[in-house]
Design goal:
The strands form 4 sheets. A 5-stranded mixed sheet has the order 2-1-10-5-6. Strands 3, 4, 7, 8 and 9 form a 5-stranded antiparallel sheet that branches. It has 11 helices and 18 strands. Helix 1 runs antiparallel to helix 6 and helix 2 crosses helix 5. The longest helix has 46 residues.
C-alpha cells in the first residue's frame, strides 16, 4: 500500500523531468525567435542596401545557381511558376529547424549557441557576395542580422538558467530535485519584447522597400510608349478560332508564363537604366538610355516565346505583341558584322541587372528576323516580371539563349571564349525552337459525350511556321486538322479537328509539320539539353 510519502517522492522525482522538457521547449522557442530576429533585422538593413541582398533571397539565388539541370527541370515540371515560392518556403523550414537546434544547444552552452547563430550570417553573406551581381555591401544584411540574433539568443538562454540551490536534507530532496525553477516570467517578457522589436524592424524594412518600389512603379506608370514606326499587321480574321478551352491567340500579360532564376523580380528605374554594347568586333561602343531607345525607330511584332523547360504539351509558351528596337540595327551601328560576313564575334552575351547571362548567336540576330530590344508588351510598358524596362526577344530561339530580361549589358564575344549561365549547367549553347503541338481541349481525363467533339490546340515552330497538324485516335490513321489563319511564321497557330467520338476509353495524339517539311518526331526526350520532343497525347472517356 502506497503512503503519502511514496506519492510525494514520485511527484518530486517527476518534477525535474517536466522542468527539463519545459526548458528544452522554451530553448527551441528562443532559437526560433533568434532566427526571426535575424531575418527581420536583415530585412531592415537590406532596405538600405538593396532588396536582393536579403539572406533568403541571396541563399535562394545561390541554391538556384548550384542546382543541377535535372533538379531544376523537376522543380519547373512539378511546381511550375511556384517553384521559387517552394524554394523560399524550404529555406525557411530549414532555417527554423536549425534555429531550434541552436536554441537547445544554447541551453547548456550559451556562448556556443550564440556563436552558432553566426553561421547563419556567414552563409547569407557568402551567398550574397558570391552571386554574379554580388557587391561587398550585400554581406551587411546577413551579418548584422546574425549579430543581433546571437545577442538575442544569449539573452534568452540566460533566462532559462536554473539557480544553483542546495536542498535541506530534512526535506528529503536531492540536488536535482531542487533545481528546475527557472525564471519563466522573465523569459516570457524577454521573448515577447524580442519578438515584438524584431517584427517592428521587419515591418519597417518592408515599408521602406515598398516605398522605394512604389517610386519605381510610378516611373513605369508615367511612361507612354510612342507609336511604332512599323506597326504589327492586324491579326487576321480566323487566327483565333474562339473554341472553348483553347488558348487565346494573344496571351494576356497576367497569364504569360514566367520562368527565370530571380527569386524577386528586379525593380529597375527606367530613368537610371543604361545599356552598354561593347566587345569583340565592336568598332564603336555604345551606351544607351531608356529615352534613347524610345527616340529610335520602334517596331511592333507578334512573337511566340517558348521556354526550353516546356515539357511536351506543357504551358510555358505564349504569344504577345512586342514593341521595341531592332537589335541588329544597333549592332550594325556599333560596327558589328555577323560571322557570315566576316565578323569576328559569333556570340552575344546579354547580362541582366541580377547577374544572369544569356548567350545568343550573332548570326541569328542579324539574319533579318525581328530580334528586338523590347520595351513594350501587349500595348503597355513591359511588366516588371517580364523584364521592365528592356528585354531581348528573338523569335525562333528558346528563351534561355535569347530572351534576357532586365538587360543592361551586351558583350560581343565567341562561343569558344565564354559559356553563358545555362551552358555552364549542361544545356546546349545554341537552341532553335523545335516543332511542337499541344492538345488544349478536351482536357486529360475529360468525359465528353458521344458525337462530334472538337479536338483543338496550338502548334508552333517559330521562324519556320506551321504547315500541317494531324490528329489520331487510339493509334489509328492520322486525320488532318483545320488550321486557323496564319498570323506569321513567328507565332503559334491554332488548329481543330472535329472528332466523331464513340463511347469508350480513347487516347488522342497530335503531331505538327513545319514549313520546311519536317514533322515532329514521336521520340520522347526530356528538356535537357535543348528542348523536349514527342507527341502530346490526351486520354478521355467518352460517355
Amino acid at each position: 500500500m502506497r503512503t503519502d510519502r511514496d506519492v510525494s517522492q514520485q511527484q518530486g522525482a517527476s518534477a525535474p523531468r517536466r522542468s527539463r522538457w519545459a526548458r528544452a521547449a522554451f530553448a527551441a522557442l528562443s532559437g526560433l525567435i533568434a532566427g526571426f530576429t535575424a531575418l527581420c533585422v536583415a530585412e531592415l538593413v537590406a532596405a538600405a542596401v538593396r532588396p536582393e541582398a536579403g539572406p533568403v533571397t541571396a541563399v535562394g539565388g545561390a541554391v538556384i545557381d548550384r542546382t543541377p539541370p535535372a533538379v531544376k527541370d523537376f522543380a519547373v515540371r512539378n511546381f511550375g511558376t511556384d517553384d521559387k515560392l517552394v524554394l523560399q518556403l524550404g529555406i525557411l523550414v530549414l532555417l527554423a529547424v536549425f534555429a531550434m537546434a541552436v536554441g537547445v544547444l544554447a541551453l547548456r552552452h550559451r556562448w556556443t549557441g550564440a556563436a552558432a547563430v553566426l553561421v547563419f550570417g556567414v552563409v547569407g553573406a557568402v551567398s550574397a557576395v558570391g552571386r554574379p551581381e554580388g557587391r561587398p555591401g550585400d554581406a551587411l544584411p546577413s551579418v548584422v542580422g546574425a549579430l543581433v540574433a546571437a545577442g538575442v539568443l544569449y539573452l534568452l538562454a540566460g533566462r532559462l538558467r536554473v539557480p544553483k540551490t542546495v536542498p535541506s536534507p530534512a526535506a528529503g530532496g536531492t540536488d536535482g530535485g531542487a533545481q528546475g525553477a527557472f525564471d519563466r516570467r522573465g523569459f516570457v517578457i524577454a521573448a515577447t519584447a524580442a519578438a515584438a522589436a524584431s517584427a517592428g524592424a521587419g515591418l519597417l524594412g518592408r515599408q521602406l522597400q515598398a516605398s522605394r518600389l512604389a517610386g519605381v512603379s510610378a516611373s513605369r506608370g508615367d511612361i507612354t510608349l510612342p507609336a511604332p514606326a512599323s506597326a504589327a499587321p492586324p491579326i487576321p480574321a480566323g487566327a483565333d478560332l474562339g473554341i472553348r478551352g483553347l488558348s487565346s491567340f494573344t496571351t494576356p500579360n497576367k497569364d504569360f508564363y514566367r520562368v527565370d532564376t530571380a527569386l524577386v523580380a528586379p525593380r529597375v528605374d527606367a530613368d537610371a537604366w543604361r545599356l552598354r554594347i561593347h566587345g569583340k568586333g565592336v568598332a564603336r561602343p555604345v551606351t544607351l538610355s531608356f529615352q534613347d531607345l524610345l527616340g529610335r525607330e520602334l517596331v511592333e511584332r507578334d512573337i511566340t516565346l517558348t521556354c526550353v523547360s516546356n515539357q511536351v504539351g506543357g504551358p510555358y509558351v505564349g504569344t504577345a505583341r512586342w514593341i521595341g528596337v531592332r537589335l541588329a540595327d544597333l549592332l550594325r551601328e556599333a560596327g558589328v558584322k555577323p560571322p557570315s560576313k566576316g565578323g569576328s564575334a559569333d556570340q552575344i552575351v546579354a547580362r541582366s541587372v541580377e547577374g544572369m547571362t544569356i548567350g545568343t548567336p550573332v548570326e541569328e540576330v542579324m539574319d533579318g528576323r525581328d530580334a528586338l530590344l523590347a520595351v513594350g508588351m501587349n500595348g503597355e510598358p513591359l511588366p516588371f516580371d517580364h523584364g521592365f524596362p528592356v528585354r531581348m526577344v528573338v523569335p525562333g530561339l528558346y528563351g534561355y539563349v535569347s530572351a534576357c530580361k532586365w538587360i543592361q549589358d551586351i558583350e560581343l564575344t565567341t562561343f569558344d571564349a565564354y559559356d553563358a549561365y545555362w551552358v555552364e549547367r549542361e544545356w546546349s549553347r545554341e537552341a532553335p525552337v523545335k516543332t511542337q503541338s499541344r492538345i488544349d481541349t478536351p482536357r486529360p481525363f475529360a468525359a465528353p459525350g458521344a458525337g462530334t467533339v472538337p479536338v483543338a490546340g496550338v502548334a508552333w515552330a517559330q521562324h519556320r511556321g506551321i504547315a500541317r497538324v494531324e490528329v489520331r485516335v487510339d493509334s489509328g490513321e492520322w486525320h488532318t486538322a483545320r488550321l486557323a489563319a496564319e498570323a506569321g511564321h513567328d507565332t503559334w497557330r491554332q488548329w481543330v479537328w472535329e472528332w466523331p467520338a464513340t463511347t469508350g476509353h480513347h487516347t488522342l495524339e497530335v503531331r505538327a509539320t513545319d514549313r520546311t517539311g519536317a514533322t515532329q518526331t514521336d521520340k520522347r526526350v526530356g528538356t535537357v539539353p535543348d528542348g523536349a520532343t514527342g507527341w502530346h497525347s490526351v486520354v478521355v472517356d467518352v460517355t
